[in-house]
Amino acid sequence: MRIYKGFSGGLFYFVLLNFVKVIFTKMKEVKCEHCKEWTDGNLKICQHCGGILNEKYLVEKEEQEKVETGMKFPLIEIDENDPILLKMGKYVVRAGQVVFFAIVTAVAYLAAGTVG
Known about the structure:
With 116 residues, the protein is mainly alpha-helical. The protein has three helices and two strands. The protein has a two-stranded antiparallel ribbon with strand order 1-2. It starts with 8 loop residues before the first helix and ends with a helix. The chain crosses the membrane at residues 6-24, 91-112. Keywords: Membrane, Transmembrane, Transmembrane helix.
């Protein structure tokens, strides 16, 4: 039900979301670890001293990404230029690899659960 002619709910939500976005982005300020001044939290570098903001967090994030990249499963790669029969064979091998990793994970889970 429209109260005012020409006023649509979509416009109202658009204006409301943009208002909330502006409010929350303006309110985000962080204290620089180097110069102890408040600066815009959306930036990566302090406006006052040029130091990196949230340096500890960024270092921890990089270390976590290194750990996560080391945990990738060694699945067979499928090239888009491979012939169709070779691709189908690689998909079958990849499915076997996924099943194998699932079984190994289940066995490790059960073995860890029986200890202690």
